[in-house]
Design the sequence.
């Protein structure tokens, strides 16, 4: 068996997320698996580094899959790009050792969330940002972000209430930077729960808008109750930037 | 009469260009005029600083129009944005003196053209760039760009062969900058002919690809023959950045 690792870029706007579903053919994983099935004549299972929700984008999602036969990586990449829609691209592909598994051995993930602070929503950024023209208190948001760093049980920031596995995660860094009219939040951690980045962002935005204080963060974490966290920030502002192994 | 000046942002992808046409309702000017007609009950003519072709974008197109009645500028702007599709936005609107005319008194225009030099076309830039993965000789392109500067008869760089008005224009600056995988060409001039920026870009790209030399530029200009210039670069890479008064 040959193990192939690929790096994928996609605009999530048109898709029902990463994960293949029985009820829709409109997922990133589904599109990729369908092409590999056509190519090989057998079902091929693609392992993503993690699921991205409907509408979420990726600049460098990582996935791997096994094929019986050996293929030239660049030919495999060209074949996939030929049949993929133009909003999904394989930007790198290589054969890797058998032990490589895109999800199980991932060490860190980096996500960004973009908030468009223009007076009128920017036409060119509308698909990749969440438009809020109210002024945000960045200092208070940074204080709140600092309260989130480290290893915690983030159950309050997980939309899956029946999550059976551990909800303990480590956040290494949350940076909040103004780039022109865009406020960019960058999250780096060892993994993120279902909806976690969007719930963290929704909570930080409520801090920025003065609806919560930075000092309220530890009690939200401690409560382990989803209803104590902020609202879910919209999917289109979120981009999976990098997976580190 | 009240004269209103507005600054517009649009993604040209879905439109048949700026200028209203009898055969299609799908133009930027048409969309704007239809809304103002609905609002006022009479036909309103919008004057753009210039036409942009089908598929060309604008970060700050300028246009003006006259209304019998006085309106609060912010209300007018909100009304337009409420009924405009989300890929066209009015980002500024103000009342200006009667003598202001967006086209007749424009002094300079700045256009950019983006070339995506990624190995695989970037998903997030695909609507706003032209993908060429071949290596380009930037030094030779810069030499060629220098030959284009100044006041010349640019008839060779105009797709309208029956142009009756003057084809003399002045180009003040052409800069060629690498920004990550994007090669950005910036054109600043006192005005541009039909297809001129795209023909200049097509010609510069042929220089970059080694199909022409920088020293061939003066003879193309002198010939005043469209067929001596390069191919027309695709619309989607072009953005009207600024109009200076």
Sequence:
């Amino acid at each position: 068996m040959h193990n192939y690792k690929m790096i994928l870029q996609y605009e999530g706007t048109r898709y029902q997320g990463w994960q293949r579903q029985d009820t829709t053919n409109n997922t990133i994983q589904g599109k990729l698996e369908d092409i590999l099935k056509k190519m090989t004549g057998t079902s091929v299972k693609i392992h993503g580094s993690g699921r991205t929700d409907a509408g979420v984008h990726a600049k460098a999602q990582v996935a791997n899959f096994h094929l019986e036969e050996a293929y030239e990586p660049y030919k495999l990449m060209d074949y996939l790009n030929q049949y993929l829609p133009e909003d999904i691209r394989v930007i790198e592909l290589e054969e890797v050792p058998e032990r490589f598994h895109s999800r199980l051995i991932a060490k860190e993930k980096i996500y960004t969330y973009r908030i468009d602070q223009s007076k009128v929503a920017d036409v060119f950024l509308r698909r990749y940002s969440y438009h809020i023209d109210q002024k945000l208190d960045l200092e208070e948001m940074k204080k709140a972000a600092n309260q989130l760093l480290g290893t915690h049980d983030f159950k309050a920031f997980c939309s899956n209430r029946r999550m059976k596995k551990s909800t303990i995660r480590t956040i290494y860094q949350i940076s909040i930077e103004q780039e022109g009219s865009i406020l960019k939040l960058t999250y780096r951690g060892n993994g993120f729960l279902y909806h976690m980045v969007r719930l963290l962002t929704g909570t930080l935005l409520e801090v920025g808008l003065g609806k919560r204080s930075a000092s309220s963060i530890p009690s939200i974490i401690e409560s382990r109750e989803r209803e104590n966290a902020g609202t879910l920030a919209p999917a289109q502002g979120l981009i999976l930037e990098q997976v580190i192994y």
